[in-house]
Each structure stands twice: as structure tokens, then as C-alpha cells.
């Protein structure tokens, strides 16, 4: 097998590691490409190509994350990861860890960790690398990595999100929610939300969004029924999609361009969190992106009474 073939076999794993460290599809893809360039230029013949490439992509990702954290401190409004519709890596033996770790809620928890803690947690807890492999990847001793893992696990356990375990149940609930959203049914929406549901959007100052986090079933339902029907009236549409492993939707304008993504956290038969990503820069990997301000103005015009 050639170097290129070995690399392509491992590309899904490398991307999945990088995405969980960086919370960015574009930065993860760049990290994987940089890993290939380093591997192609290297004369090293590693005993384990998987361990070698995983170490390289981890080091690249840590470097990128350290500079990205500075930018995120200056971010306008709520910051969310770039939405991921499909995780390319699948390992039946670790399906639970992989699914939990890619959710928006889990990635936001990972943001609280230092870059080293995050890398150690991702490699050991999510992908099951042993501490010898982790130590090689982050250039620390095994003892140090064990301590980093303990601290990271403690932070993650303190805020670990709880989700509806039954995929069929949560997908059915999401379908009912988006049907009610499309039809503007206030009572139906309220019935599907927890009493303390929260709704928050990431526009990054580059798209119209709610000025703050909206809390409470009544508040959320009323805002949605007063705004969303106009989006559909001007030709907007939605596609039910899984977003970061949770039920959600992809919203498009009348020409099929991507406007935003919604992801829903579901627990005990109701929706507890609604997260929307509206920042056009975070949606470019999903295809042509709509002009959110133009859609906002058109919907606002449609709401105005006519003589």
C-alpha cells in the first residue's frame, strides 16, 4: 500500500480527531492537509502509521487551537462550533463515545479545557488511545498525560449533558417540532419544549440574530411563531438533518442556499436547548451560503400590512 493510500484510509479518523480538538470543520480539514504534507515529506517509516499520523494531526491541531482561542475571546455574541452534518469516522466499539463527544453541548464543554487537556481527553477518552500513544502525540510523559486526563474528565463530568438515548424518539420529536414551526402553531410548540428551554444563536455579528439567550417555553414559542412563518412565506425551506449527532435542520433560502443550522438537545420527551448557527463564515463548508441580511429584510417587508 502506498503512502497516499494509507493516508486516505486514515483520513476519516484524522479529521474526527482534529474536529473534536478544534470545533471547526475548515480548520480540521486544514490540519489534516498539513498532516499529509508533513507525512509525504518525511522519510520516517513508522511502526504504526495510525499512531504516527494521529500524533501529527494532534500536534498541528493543538497549535491551531492556541491561536484560535485568542480569536474566540473577541468573538461577537455566543460562540458555537462549526456545524458537522456527518462524522466520517465510525467505530462500532466506541460508538457511544464518538456520538456524545461531537454534540454541540460536549464541544462547548471541551472549550473549557486547556489545549493539552482537550487533546488528551479526545485521544484517550473518545478514541481509546493508550497513554503511551497519547504521551507520544502530545510530547508529555505518560504520568503527566494521566493527570491531564483526570483533570479533563473531572471538568467534563461536572457539566456532562444528558440527552434522550432513543434516537427514534428524539427524531420523531424533532419532526413534530419543525412541523409546528413551519405551521406557526404556538400551542403545539409550547407542548414540545421544557419549561426552562433555552434558545440561542451564533451570528458572530455577521447575521441578524436574537439579541440574547431566550429562556422559557412561552417566550421561545412566541418568538418563533412571530418570526418563522414569514421565512417560509418568502420561499424559505428546511431539511431535517442530524447536526453534530443531534436532531436538527438545515435552513435554505428559495434558491437552495444555506441560511443556518439548528440543533436540538432532547431529554425526557421534550426539547431543552435550541442552538442555531447563522454566521455565514461557519456555513461555507455546507455549500453556497445565503445573504442573511437580505432574507431578514425581505421577511420584514412581508410582515408589513398592505393597503
TrEMBL record:
Keywords linked to the UniProt accession: Sigma factor, Transcription, Transcription regulation
Ranges of residues in domain RNA polymerase sigma factor 70 region 4 type: 105-156
Pfam families: Sigma70_r2, Sigma70_r4_2
Residue ranges occupied by any RNA polymerase sigma-70 region domain in the UniProt entry: 7-69
SUBUNIT field: Interacts transiently with the RNA polymerase catalytic core formed by RpoA, RpoB, RpoC and RpoZ (2 alpha, 1 beta, 1 beta' and 1 omega subunit) to form the RNA polymerase holoenzyme that can initiate transcription.
PANTHER family: ECF RNA POLYMERASE SIGMA FACTOR SIGJ, SIGMA 19 FACTOR
Protein family (similarity comment): Belongs to the sigma-70 factor family. ECF subfamily.
Protein name: RNA polymerase sigma-70 factor
Organism expressing this protein natively: Flexivirga alba
Amino acid at each position: 500500500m502506498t503512502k497516499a493510500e494509507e493516508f486516505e484510509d486514515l483520513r476519516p479518523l484524522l479529521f474526527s480527531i482534529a474536529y473534536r480538538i478544534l470545533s471547526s470543520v475548515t480548520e480540521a480539514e486544514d490540519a489534516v492537509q498539513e498532516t499529509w504534507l508533513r507525512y509525504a515529506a518525511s522519510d520516517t517509516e513508522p511502526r504504526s502509521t495510525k499512531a504516527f499520523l494521529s500524533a501529527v494531526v494532534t500536534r498541528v491541531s493543538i497549535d491551531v487551537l492556541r491561536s484560535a482561542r485568542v480569536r474566540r475571546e473577541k468573538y461577537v455574541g455566543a460562540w458555537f462550533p462549526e456545524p458537522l452534518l456527518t462524522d466520517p469516522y465510525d467505530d462500532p466499539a466506541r460508538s457511544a463515545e464518538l456520538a456524545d463527544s461531537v454534540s454541540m453541548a460536549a464541544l462547548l464543554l471541551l472549550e473549557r479545557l486547556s489545549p493539552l487537556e482537550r487533546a488528551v481527553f479526545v485521544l484517550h477518552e473518545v478514541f481509546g488511545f493508550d497513554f503511551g500513544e497519547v504521551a507520544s502525540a502530545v510530547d508529555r510523559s505518560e504520568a503527566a498525560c494521566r493527570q491531564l486526563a483526570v483533570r479533563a474528565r473531572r471538568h467534563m463530568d461536572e457539566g456532562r449533558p444528558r440527552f434522550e438515548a432513543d434516537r427514534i424518539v428524539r427524531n420523531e420529536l424533532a419532526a413534530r417540532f419543525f412541523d409546528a414551526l413551519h405551521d406557526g402553531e404556538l400551542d403545539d410548540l409550547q407542548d414540545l419544549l421544557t419549561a426552562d428551554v433555552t434558545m440561542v444563536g451564533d451570528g458572530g455579528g455577521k447575521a441578524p440574530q436574537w439579541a440574547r439567550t431566550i429562556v422559557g417555553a412561552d417566550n421561545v414559542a412566541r418568538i418563533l411563531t412571530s418570526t418563522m412563518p414569514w421565512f417560509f412565506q418568502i420561499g424559505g425551506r428546511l431539511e431535517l438533518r442530524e447536526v453534530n449527532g443531534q436532531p436538527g435542520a438545515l435552513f435554505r433560502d428559495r434558491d437552495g442556499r444555506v441560511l443556518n443550522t439548528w440543533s436540538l438537545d432532547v431529554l425526557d420527551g421534550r426539547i431543552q436547548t435550541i442552538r442555531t448557527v447563522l454566521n455565514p463564515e461557519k456555513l461555507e463548508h455546507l455549500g453556497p451560503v445565503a445573504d442573511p441580511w437580505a432574507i431578514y429584510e425581505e421577511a420584514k417587508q412581508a410582515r408589513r400590512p398592505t393597503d
